[in-house]
Amino acid sequence: MSVETKVMNCIMCPMGCEMTVTLKDGKFASVTGNTCPRGAKYAQDEVTAPKRMLTYTVKVNGGLLPLLPVVSANVLPKEKVMECAAYLRDVVVEAPVKTGDVIVKDILGLGVDIIASRDMDKV
Question: 50 to each of 30, 53, 63, 81, 107, how far by Cα in Å?
Fold first, then answer.
């Protein structure tokens, strides 16, 4: 049986606890150093299935600006972030756009929408 430890800082609150995660045979076994249950959940998720938010820009036709900032409505699997960004490179929207409008529904079949993070008026 192999035992591995990883040290990480929690990002769930401003405390920034330094946690030590123990993996046994590559699987989560325990975490120490967290001061709340959110830290333990974050550590377990981070070593077993890391996820990230995606912020990006897409092209806009007829808008006051050439690019529209967008964000994932929820977290994405970390290993899919670059693939999602590549997909968004080819997305073009028509102005006007309102904050919260869905720009891409269910990107790459991951169950996560990409939404506008600001209004974009028409020229």
Answer: 17, 11, 35, 11, 18
pLDDT, position 59: 98
- Cβ atoms of 112 and 106 closer than 8 Å: yes
Q: What is the pLDDT of residue 1?
A: 82
Question: What does the buried/exposed string (b/e) look like for 48-60 if buried means 16 or more CB atoms within 10 Å of the residue's CB?
Answer: eeebeebebebeb
Scanning the structure block, which residue is given the tokens 């995606």? 54
- pTM listed for this prediction: 0.84
Q: Nearest-CA neighbor of 73 among 22, 21, 113?
A: 113
pLDDT per residue over 60-101, tens digit each?
Answer: 999 999 999 999 999 999 999 999 999 999 999 999 999 999
